[in-house]
């Protein structure tokens, strides 16, 4: 773990990994642009990350596409960032609107993170649909019914070795959101329902007007600036800042 932390500690490599944490596959040129480094420097960094098995690379025509090697690697990288934020607090700097949006809702590989991701996890735990303990998670009988009605496909995939449900330490909130197959399915369902929209070339996720209504009715999460129900207030789900996408 120490060797991995040292490997991802370089600013250029860290920036490229952060871009890939959105779950997309990107070329070396795209990653070099995100990190504001030369193409040759980016290629050197990417080679090290591939050899360390943090990234996978796929050749398609003339381009090589890089992506996080697995959900487990994504969870490990998120955990390293969360621990670093706790052990080495950043010096105070004025936060931008983009920073606030990233902290409110973003993708962590293929599931939701930030205030919104934590709020959904809290809501499911408060209702007894999910039990989180240590590094593991369990979906209860009521949770299976609730998530199935929501549209989540909870059956195991053939030959799949994906972790079903687990907590993932959120680097900005320093609390847990949901990862694993269950977390990915919740994210997918929210996108398919039109509740969320992803910013282009960013991990930022925006809540649509339909999403504001749906999240309140389904999970009891109030994004309007008002207070959440009492059973969620006890879990810290209240007064979330709302960033809606513009109507089209």
Radius of gyration: 18 Å
Q: Helix segment count? A: 11
Structural class: alpha+beta
The span between the termini is: 46 Å
Strand count:
11
Major beta sheet summary: 3 strands, antiparallel
List the helices and strands and how they pair.
Layout: H1 2-8, H2 11-20, E1 26-27, H3 28-35, H4 39-51, E2 55-60, E3 63-68, H5 71-87, H6 97-104, E4 106-108, E5 111-113, H7 114-126, E6 130-133, E7 136-139, H8 141-150, E8 166-169, E9 176-179, H9 180-192, E10 196-198, E11 205-207, H10 209-219, H11 230-233
Antiparallel strand pairs: 1-3, 2-3, 4-5, 6-7, 8-9, 10-11
Overall description:
- It is a single chain.
- The chain contains eleven helices and eleven strands.
- It has helices spanning 2-8, 11-20, 28-35, 39-51, 71-87, 97-104, 114-126, 141-150, 180-192, 209-219, 230-233; strands spanning 26-27, 55-60, 63-68, 106-108, 111-113, 130-133, 136-139, 166-169, 176-179, 196-198, 205-207.
- The chain is an alpha+beta fold and 248 residues long.
- Helix content is 46%, strand content 17%.
- The strands form five sheets. It has a three-stranded antiparallel β-sheet with strand order 1-3-2. Strands 4-5 form a two-stranded antiparallel sheet.
Keywords:
46% helix; 11 helices; alpha+beta; disordered C terminus; 17% strand; three-stranded antiparallel sheet; two-stranded antiparallel sheet
Question: In summary, what is this structure?
Answer:
The protein is an alpha+beta fold and 248 residues long. 46% of the residues lie in helices and 17% in strands.
């Amino acid at each position: 773990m120490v060797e991995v932390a040292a490997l991802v500690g370089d600013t250029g490599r860290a920036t490229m990994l952060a871009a890939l944490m959105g779950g997309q596959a990107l070329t070396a040129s795209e990653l070099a642009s995100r990190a504001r480094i030369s193409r040759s420097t980016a290629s050197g960094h990417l080679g090290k990350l591939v050899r360390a098995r943090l990234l996978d690379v796929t050749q398609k025509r003339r381009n090589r596409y890089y992506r996080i090697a697995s959900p487990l690697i994504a969870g490990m990288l998120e955990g390293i960032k969360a621990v670093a934020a706790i052990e080495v607090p950043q010096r105070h700097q004025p936060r931008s609107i983009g920073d606030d949006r990233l902290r409110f809702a973003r993708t962590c590989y293929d599931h939701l993170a930030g205030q919104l991701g934590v709020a959904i996890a809290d809501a499911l735990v408060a209702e007894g649909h999910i039990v989180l303990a240590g590094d593991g998670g369990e979906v209860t009988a009521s949770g299976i019914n609730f998530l199935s009605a929501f549209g989540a496909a909870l059956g195991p995939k053939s030959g799949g070795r994906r972790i079903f449900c687990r907590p993932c330490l959120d680097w900005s909130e320093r609390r847990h959101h949901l990862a694993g197959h269950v977390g990915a399915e919740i994210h997918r369902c929210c996108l398919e329902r039109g509740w969320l929209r992803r910013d282009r070339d960013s991990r930022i996720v925006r809540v649509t007007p339909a999403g504001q209504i749906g999240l309140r009715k389904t999970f009891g999460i109030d994004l309007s600036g008002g207070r959440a129900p009492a059973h969620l207030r006890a879990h810290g789900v209240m007064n979330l800042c709302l960033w809606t996408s513009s109507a089209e």
